[in-house]
Design goal:
Keywords: Membrane, Transmembrane, Transmembrane helix. About 60% of the residues lie in helices and about 0% in strands. The protein has four helices and no strands. Helix 3 packs antiparallel against helix 4.
Amino acid sequence: MFHQAGMHGFHFFPFPITLILLLIIGFLIARSYGYFGGSSTASKVAPEAPKSQNSEALDILSRRFATGEIDEEEFQKRTQVLRLNL
């Protein structure tokens, strides 16, 4: 009875394997384009660590020195005070 179907009734055997292989290949291609949590540029960007108050103060101090609001002596004194209080 199954002998006439070819391969003794297992003529459908390659279809599931082919389907599974196509699904795996499709998944790998989709993942390479960033779907399914794969590698994308947005996920590679590390979250920025919160700045401490001293580093913010040093940034402000550097900007004030760069714009000429304070002179070099004042900048050195305030920088030294901020670094001692880290």
